Amino acid sequence: MDLNSASTVVLRVLTQATSQDTAVLKPAEEQLKQWETQPGFYSVLLNIFTNHSLDVNVRWLAVLYFKNGIDRYWRWVAPHALSEEEKTRLRAGLITNFNEPVNQIATQISVLIAKVARLDCPRQWPELIPTLVESVKVQDDLQQHRALLTFYHVTKTLASKRLAADRKLFYDLTSSIYSFACSLWNHHTDTFLQQICAGDEAAAANSLERTLLSLKVLRKLTVHGFVEPHWNPEVMGFLHAVFERLKQFLECSRSIRAESICRDHLEKTIILFTKVLLDFLDQHPFSFTALIQRSLEFSVSYVFTEAGEGIVFEQFIVQCMNLIKMIVKNYAYKPSKNIEASSPETLEAHKIKTAFFTYPTLMEICRRLVTHYFLLTKEELTMWEEDPESFTVEETGGDSWKYSLRPCTEVLFIDIFHEYNQTLTPVLLEMVHSLQGSTNIEDTNAILIKDAVYNAVGLAAYELFDSVDFDQWFKNQLLAELQVSHDRYKPIRRRVIWLIGQWISVKFKSDLRPVLYEAIRNLLQDRDLVVNDFEFRTDQFLPYLESMFTLLFQLLQEVTQCDTKMHVLHVLSCVIERVNVQIRPYVGCLVQYLPLLWKQSEEHNMLRCAILTTLIHLVQGLGADSKNLYPFLLPVIQLSTDVSQPPHVYLLEDGLQLWLVTLENSPCLTPELLRIFQNMSPLLGKSLTN
C-alpha cells in the first residue's frame, strides 16, 4: 500500500466509518477489514492518528484499528504478519514525539506502544526505554506528561510477563532505571508539596498528576522488579519514604477544598501509596518484615486513634485495615507448632507482631471496631427507613470486603479475634455484660451500641463457643428483646434474629426451637425480619409450617428487588426440601404464582435459576401429583435445556436436574415429556465438543 496515494483513500473510509448512517458505516467497516492484511496499512494509520489537524473521531478510530492490528498481526508467526521492515518503521514512528493533545487518544497510543513493547522490548526495540527516560526529562508540560503516561503503561505491561526469561529481562531493566524512577517521583512530589503550600492549586494539580504516574511506575518496579528487594537499599528507602509522604499528603488534604479536582487526585495518590505497601507485602512477605512495625503503627494510629480525625476518608481506612489484616493473617509470619522447624524470618516477623499487639492495643482496636465502625450510620438508618429492601440487599450482598468499609471492618474483627481470642474474649464479654437488660427506646445511641456488640458476638460465635451460654442468654435476654414491638427497637429485633442465625449451628438446644419458630412467625407477620437460613428439625417445625409458608409466600409477592426474591425463594426451597411430601397442602398459592414470576424474570437469569431450584424441590415434594404442573413445568424444562437459546448458559444445569426429577416422579411417559427429548441430541453433541 503506497503511503501517499493510500492516505487519502484510507482517511475517507475512516471518516465514513465514524458515520451514524449504517448504509455508510457498514461498507466502510468491510473495506477497513479487507485492508487489515495489506502491507503499509498500519503505516497509513500511524500517519493519520498522529496528524492533529484531522477530526478527533477519525484519529480515535485509526488508533483503535492500529491497536487491534498489533494483537492480530504483529507476531511473526501470525497469518498475514507484518513485515519486519514495516514494524521497524512503525516502532520508530510511535516514539518520534509525545505531543498528543487529546487525553483519550494519548492513553490509547500509550497502551498500543506498551502492546508492542510486550512483544519486542528490549530485543527488537532497545531504544524504547532510553527514549522514554529522556522524554520525561523535557520541560514541555504536555510532552513530559505523555512520555510519563507511556512510561507507566510500558512498565505495567512488561511487569506482567511471567516467563523466566522475561522476568530476568524485567529485573535487568529495573536495576538500570530504578534510581531514575525514584528521583523522578521525588522531584514531582516535592514540586507538588511546594506548590500546594504556596496556594497555587492549578499548578499543584498538574504536578500531582505527574506524581501519580511516576508513583505508578515505581509501584510496578518495586513489586515486580527484584527477587529479594530487602537487599536493595534504594527499594527499602523508597518504602520507608512512603510512610512520610503519606503523612504529608494526608496533612495536605486539610487545606484542599472537598470539591477541588486536586482533592480527587490527592486521594487517588494516597490510595496508591497504600497499594504499594499491600502489593509489596503480598509478593515479598519476608522482605516486608522490616516494614511490619511501621505499617502497624501507621495504620492503627490513623484508623483507631484521634490522629486520623478530620483527614482520613473511607477508602483510605479500608486500605489500612486491609494492611493490618494481611499482616495478622500472613502465613509467612506464623511459626510452626514445632518452633525449631520455623525459619528465622518467620520467627522475626512473629516476634514483631507479638510485641506490637499488646493487651492495651488489642483492647483499643476491638472496642473501636465495635463501638465506632460497627455502628449503623445516619445514612444507613435513613435508607432502611425509606427503602428497607435496598438496605437489606446492600448490607447482605454488598461489595467485596477489600473495597467496602462495613464488610472490611467485620472481616478484620473476625481475623483479629481469631488470632488473639484469649486476649479479646474477656473484652467482648465485658461489653455484652454491660448491656444486659432492656435498653431505653429513647436512647438511639444505646440501641446502636447494642446492635454493634451483638453483631460482634455473632461474628465471633465459633470463638466464643466455650465462653457463652447461649441457651441461657436466649431465654433470659434475647427472646424478650424480640418481643419489644416499638419501632425504634427495630435494629435490635433484626440483629437478635441474625445473631440467633449465627449461633444456631454452633450452640442452641433443640427444645428451644419451637419458641424460636413462634418468634420468627411473629416477626414475619410484622414484616420485621431479614430472612435467614435456619436449621430446623422437621417434627418441631411442622406445627408452624402452614403459617410460615404462607407468610414467606406473601413476602415473596411483596418484595420487588431481584436479589430479595431470590433470597426468599431460597428459604422457601429449603423448607420444601426438608418437609418433602408434607408441603403438599400448602403449595397451591406458590404453584399459581411461579408462572407469573417466571415471566417477569425474563431478563434476570439468576432469579430464574432460583425458580428452577424451587421447582426441583416442589416436584420432589408433590411426587406423582407434579403432573398437574406440566403446562408450566415442561416449557420451562424445554427452554432451560435448549442449547440454541441464549439463557441455557445460566439455566442448563438446574434445568437438567429439574428434567431428571420430573421423569423420576412422572406416573407415565406422556407425549409432552417425550417432545423434550428433541433437546437431547444437541445436548450430547455439546458435551462431546466440550
From TrEMBL:
<dbReference type="InterPro" id="IPR016024">
    <property type="entry name" value="ARM-type_fold"/>
</dbReference>
<dbReference type="InterPro" id="IPR001494">
    <property type="entry name" value="Importin-beta_N"/>
</dbReference>
<keyword id="KW-0597">Phosphoprotein</keyword>
<dbReference type="GO" id="GO:0031267">
    <property type="term" value="F:small GTPase binding"/>
</dbReference>
<keyword id="KW-0813">Transport</keyword>
<dbReference type="GO" id="GO:0005829">
    <property type="term" value="C:cytosol"/>
</dbReference>
<protein>
    <recommendedName>
        <fullName>Importin-11</fullName>
    </recommendedName>
</protein>
<comment type="similarity">
    <text>Belongs to the importin beta family.</text>
</comment>
<keyword id="KW-0653">Protein transport</keyword>
<dbReference type="Pfam" id="PF03810">
    <property type="entry name" value="IBN_N"/>
</dbReference>
<keyword id="KW-0677">Repeat</keyword>
<feature type="domain" description="Importin N-terminal">
    <location>
        <begin position="28"/>
        <end position="100"/>
    </location>
</feature>
<keyword id="KW-0539">Nucleus</keyword>
<dbReference type="InterPro" id="IPR011989">
    <property type="entry name" value="ARM-like"/>
</dbReference>
<dbReference type="Pfam" id="PF25758">
    <property type="entry name" value="TPR_IPO11"/>
</dbReference>
<dbReference type="GO" id="GO:0005635">
    <property type="term" value="C:nuclear envelope"/>
</dbReference>
<comment type="subunit">
    <text>Interacts with UBE2E3 and RPL12.</text>
</comment>
<dbReference type="InterPro" id="IPR058669">
    <property type="entry name" value="TPR_IPO7/11-like"/>
</dbReference>
<keyword id="KW-0963">Cytoplasm</keyword>
<dbReference type="GO" id="GO:0006606">
    <property type="term" value="P:protein import into nucleus"/>
</dbReference>
<keyword id="KW-0007">Acetylation</keyword>
